Amino acid sequence: MIKNKERILGAFLMSALAVAISACGGESSPSNSRKYVVSDDGIKLNGKNDAGVILDVAEYGDIFSGRPFLISYAKQQETEPLSDYGEKDTGLQPFRIQAEFGDVSDTHPVTGAEAPEGTVYYTVPERVLYATQDGYGFTEKFTVYDEEDNHTEFTMNVGAGTRHGDPVFPDQWHIRNIGQNPFSFITGPVSGYDAGVIPAWHLTDADGNPVSGRNVKVAVLDEPIDFNHEDLKDRRFTPDGKGLYGVNLDNSSGLSIHGTEVAGLIGATAGNGKGVRGIGYESLLTSYYYWEAPFSYLTDPGNVSMVSASLGYDSSYSYRPELEMYFQSMLENNIPFIRAAGNEYYSVSFEGSRRFSDECILRSVNCQFNQTSSFNRARYAVNVASLNSQGVRASYSSTGSYIWVTGFGGEPGYYDLDFTSPGIVTTKSSRDPQEYADAKDAGTPWRLDPNYYDLRKYYTHTFSGTSAATPTVSGVVALIKQAKPDITVPQIRYILAVTSSNDKTPGWSSLDYGSVIQNVEEMNNASVTLDAGWHENGAGLRYSNYYGFGVINAEAAVKLALSCDDDEECSRRSELPLQYRSYDSAPCSSSDNGRTVTCYFSRFVNSDTERKVEGSFRIDNVAFDMAGFTYAAEPDVGISECSEAGDGNLYSAYYANSLMQIEMTSPRGTLSIIKPVYANWDFDGAHFRTTNEIDVVEGEFLLTTSDFFNERMETSEVTRLRIRSVCPVDVKSLNKSMKLVMDVYPD
């Protein structure tokens, strides 16, 4: 009933869900017929107007975020004044408005503010979306009753397939997976495996706005974005210094597609009747061309809120120490760096030894070790793996201890007929596909369907890879940044780690996989753990090299961002961590001439003050320096490649690296497999120094592991690093660089 009768005066309203909506059937529910063709969404009179009131839409809302519609009402004709309401007469007979599925109220459902005179709010509760078989739209029925119960019916189409909707949105299974399969794949999406975005959109920030990535400035480090695209042109943001080199380049041809695909997943405009919507659909997008825009542009918090990078540089000799300075500046300015982990699970992307590619595939081990260039080794990056629509790791998705979380990247779709499940639906080009080679989408049922060609022609359904998974995480981070504008990078990483879905999360048993323990012939048939599978670290967090801390859950992440100050671990990360580094003298040793090398770390100093530190702390980040790693010049094994590796042959070093494993054990007993045997790696410390003209072992080559995040540790406790290698390692050279570097929060 009305909460403020004096405001409405002669009118009274009723907010009610007229019928209970049940998935069990037998009761009324919205239509489950999906309409892709954009339909009118005005309010239409259904029959004779016996109640004498006309309804219209004063302001359109959104059923997927809960943003209310503003419905206006007006008299159809003059009526006699009502003496019973003597203060001020509206000329309207008393009436009430009832919606069949949504709620009608004279106050805003979030802020409680009164609706403007002559209007009411109409909202669709989240429960209505989940109670329908379709969930992407339906026809609402409004019934207006006068005081004598004469009534008039009005109808209004709401949802994706309307003039104020997003008609291709129902194909975006990564946002809401209800098992839809408009792609005609043999293996379609499996219901339930999505990013939990719609519940997150129903949450509100401190100002009462739906969480939508509102005004978060996202730098897309990629190919230029096609800002002529109908779903991206309103999202464009140009930083200070318009015309900056490599920023927002003109992409009038619309054929630089990769950056456009990424941009659509992050921030495609919602509610414009044009196509899809991004996870952070009210974020602001800036295109930074990765070949031209200086990295220094990405460190200015006035122009950049976050960076999304669906790219990598797979060469250990791409050494750029200035990048470490830029990444540190991004950390200090609370600019998160979201990065694709790589697509090399079954492949090797550098020139070198491929002799063990069959072994890595046979043994279900990642084929390439991806902590390579300075770019790939950014210590505070959120490295993103990829999930497909069946709720399991995408076939190509690189694995490793550097993974932080998993986003949604799908499979290559029709582009590669070995994988008969869909990729990701997103923006593609502002040009009609008939004007250029449509490549992956051409000839597919999704593109060729004549009923929907005009709606889909500027979009793709075959975007995949960790390139696609990364912007789904970036979109969620944009929501987090809106929910808590002052959030730090360590807080964002913490939130993603503790809210992501793992193998023990109800409904996510698809993620379950066990450890991979194999006898390695080249290591005298020794039993080696190639992948630890899902395991619990000393802080009680589930972790795996496949998925990191798990699959992003937008709702849980935004809720924790909103309550971060009340969470002890989140709150402590409001400041940047301290950095400790070990100073153990010659920490590494070997009892078998370099085939098994063990390094122990137990003494630390503060990197800034150089003072010895003691006491306990929480681990935020762990890295160790491999710059001195190389092979013994005179190995005691009769393997020619080992001799050549020790003599400086680079490709022999690649061979030796394939038969080498790096693993670390924390004081809490957590085992982290950092580089598994059979994974190819294009690194040798001597060549690293020669290539980059470094005379001595002084340039850091830090490798990281995520496994120990948030574990409590005493500075006196021992962390152990072990290298197992067929070709003997030069321990003396290794000791010239080896140290443990940890970012910590002291107790």
Keywords:
747 residues, alpha+beta, six-stranded parallel beta sheet, six-stranded antiparallel beta sheet, 16 helices, 22% strand, elongated, disordered N terminus
How many helices? The count is 16
Q: Which outline best applies?
A: elongated
Low-confidence stretches: 1-33, 78-91
Give, in spatial order, the strands making up the sheet with the most strands: 10-9-11-12-13-14
Rg value = 29 Å
Q: What summary fits the major beta sheet?
A: 6 strands, parallel
* Binned strand content: 15-25%
**DSSP E strands, number:** 31
Helix content: 10-25%
Distance between the termini: 54 Å
Structural class: alpha+beta
Nearest-integer average pLDDT = 89
Task: Offer a quick outline of the entry.
With about 750 residues, the protein is α+β, with helices and mostly antiparallel strands. Helix content is about 15%, strand content about 20%.
In words, what does this structure look like?
The protein is 16% helix and 22% strand. It has 16 helices and 31 strands. It is elongated. The chain is of the alpha+beta class and 747 residues long. The longest helix has 18 residues, at 466-483. The chain starts with a helix and ends with a strand. Strand 22 (588-590) and strand 23 form a beta hairpin. The strands form eight sheets. The protein has a six-stranded parallel β-sheet with strand order 10-9-11-12-13-14. Strands 21, 24, 25, 28, 29 and 31 form a six-stranded antiparallel β-sheet that branches.
